[in-house]
Structures are given as structure tokens and as C-alpha cells.
Task: structure prediction
Amino acid sequence: MELWHKRMGHPSMKVTQLIPGANKHENGSEFNKACEICFRAKQTRENFPLSEQNASSIFEMVHSDLWGPYRIPSTCGAYYFLTIVDDYSRAVWIYLLMDKREVSQTLKDYFSLIERQFHKKIKIFKM
Result:
């Protein structure tokens, strides 16, 4: 029973009270006492504040994030991932990079792509 508890979690006290004898282990200890995982799972957070800046057209505001190095390379050998999101359309571009020194050229290429393909210029770029 203990193995199931650690892998799957456990039912609430309200549910276990419906089953006769389910609230006690064979050794007499409480079965459904509060645990650290339950406490963390039930924690809530405050809502994010509404943004004062919202894009009203595509490529007015673009967000970017670089993460890595990842401990295991992708199938193409990339350790870093550059994610770019258009605030208005929520369109996403993901670039896999071998080294973070590639970010500068990748961003230049992305800006050129937007100008060529969409005939737009990015007004606000957030990294």
C-alpha cells in the first residue's frame, strides 16, 4: 500500500472515511495524514497582474527566452533552445542551438525572416 501511496498519491480524508477501517494501517498509525506532497500540491499562487502593454497587431511585441545548456543534446546536437513568441498571435518559433553564441545571428535571421515573409518590423522585442 505504501508504494501505491508514493506513486499515485492518495484519496482525500473525505473519501477514505467512506471505507470502513481505511484510515488505519495494520500497525494502527493513521493512513491518511497530511504529507508534504499533498501540502505542496494544494498550494495556490496569486494571479499574475494584467499587463499594461498588450499588442494590438502582429509583431508589435515579441517575447524571447533562451534556456540551456540542457544536459542531454537533442538529436541534432543542440544544447540550447531559443523560443520566440509573438504577443498578439501567440505564434511560436523554436530554434535549437549548439552554443549560446549563436543567439545573436539567430535573432538577426529571425528579424529578417519577419520582414521578408510578413512585410512587418518588430516594434518591441523582450528578452
